[in-house]
Amino acid sequence: MALEGHIETVLWTEADIAARVAELASQITDDFLGSSVPLVAVGVATGAFLFLADVVRRIKIPIEVDFIRAESYGSGTESSGAPRISCDIKIDVAGKHVILVEDIVDTGNTLSCLVAHLESKGASSVSVCTFLDKPARRKVELKLVGEGKFYRGFECPDYFVVGYGMDFAELYRNVPYVGVLKPEMYK
Ligand code: 5GP
Ligand code: MG
Ligand code: MG
Questions:
Q1: CB of 128 closer than 6 A to ligand 1?
Q2: Ligand 1 pocket: which of 166, 171, 172, 186 to mutate (most atoms <8 Å of CB)?
Q3: Domain ranges in the chain?
Q4: What is the pTM of this model?
Q5: CA-CA distances (angstroms) from residue 17 to 22, 76, 131?
Q6: Could you say which DSSP state residue 123 is in?
Q7: What's the gap in Å between 17 CA and the centre of ligand 3?
Q8: Can 158 be counted among the known catalytic residues?
Q9: ipTM
Q10: With a 6 A CB cut-off, is 114 part of the ligand 1 pocket?
């Protein structure tokens, strides 16, 4: 079955996403334009790969780009409290402004762990740029580092969403918009 037959509802179309990503990139550009400290974008693999690619190409100042991978032991549609960094960054972030780029913040477990990890590597600030945010489900308050800022694309209702990098069982990352799966697709 073609992909669109798997999706029950579309929450954000490709056009919605493109418009919001452009706004975020322009906000980030404005916020860091006057800074002499190097800027690094760290994408959280795999989910952030499309968002990272779209946002960094619209940022109008020099920026290094890297990935980090965190595995949580949660199964299905919820993360566990204790993620493990299974693939670390290659770039030295000491003394730099880091922007962690995420697909979605849910409980906050994953990002809290990653922010602390980057702080321990000596980043002079850690900001978070998440495509989606589900504040209603937060279990851990996000603490940023230094002058770090919180950027988010959209507030997400409490549905399990897929597309634009986000998966269910590693599928649907290539859906170019964000939607909710038909219930029969979870079986
Ligand atoms: P947290 O640690 O904040 O609970 O969850 C973070 C990770 O869980 C996200 O980066 C994402 O990979 C996954 N996640 C949370 N909510 C959703 C969702 O609605 N859809 C998908 N596909 N993944 C989600
Ligand atoms: Mg993620
Ligand atoms: Mg996933």
A1: no
A2: 166
A3: 14-30+37-158
A4: 0.95
A5: 9, 26, 9
A6: -
A7: 20
A8: no
A9: 0.97
A10: no
